[in-house]
# Entry
Amino acid sequence: MVLQEQYFTHADGRYEAAAQRHRSSKPFNLDRLEKNVRFVLVEVVPKITKLLLLLVPVLFRDFVQLFLPAKKKSITGQLALVTGGGNGLGRALCFRLAQEGCAVAVADIDLVGARRTAEEVRTRFGVKANAFHVDVSDYGSVCKMKEDIESALGNVDVLVNNAALLAMLSISEGKPEDIQRIVNVNLLSHFWTIRAFKDGMVERRRGHIVAICSLLGIIPIGRTISYCATKFGVRGLMASLTEEFHLDGLTNDLHTTCVYPAGIRTRKQFIDLMRDLKLTIPVHSPEYVANAIVDAVLVNKTEVIPSSLGVRIIAAMYHIVPRSLSLLVSEIIVGKIPVLTRRG
# Structure
């Protein structure tokens, strides 16, 4: 706690530089050579040996699993929370989760839409479903939602962070508060909901956290800097969270799935924008994407790109191909996005 306080506090002129390690000016230092050799023999060689010994069974297991059908888990009787569940992909996810036998907490800032989804879930699938109002960008609102859900339906087992703003602004576009709102809704909201529900999952040693990221969290596109930055943040958050569960010995109990959709046929404004900008990325129905997401959850898949094979290959290769090739592919797949001054 003392170190944390020192790190986060500030006092003018009180910066203290870290001590620099002394380096000998001699061209050859026998003591340093001896230390390096000892380090390699004591630290490096044993770890490499251990890695090679453990790597063989891991690779063999992964190779065998390539040819075996993935073992599915059951989420029947569990409670799923879907943020942004009132419309679009969130609504489709509520239906698919209900189809799997989950009770559903439909959370949205659009309470009318959330109530409509919850009513249809109850009518069509015969499971419990309630609507909850929440502003996911506000931690207090998220905590209030948690209390309301646990009082009405119980503990959340499957958390789906779906709520987001599809605001394609660059850095110089929009007002400062617009950019702040995008960051708060698209990125900070994931921190708030995970903070609210993770501890209960850890205590019960059961839970699955799903983040709806974007293909733009893998492949950056100019003119969408604000959106891309938040989605890259979500990607890093989920990757780190997965590693943290492993470090805490929760690999078999708590699971994560980060989703990278391309285009989804949801909001009319988004489809109109794609048409106006002449973007040629694949567009899928909310039901198609929702099915791919829940299928991934059932086999504890940590990442899924619910799109065509071509898009998945491009995403996998993007960061290892030359820059010139990635630019060419981006221009072919996405197209030429107008300069900022010509965007409405």
Residues 268 and 274 are 10 Å apart (CA to CA). Strands lie at 79-83, 103-108, 129-133, 158-161, 207-212, 254-259, 263-264, 283-284, 303-304. The chain has a mean pLDDT of 86.
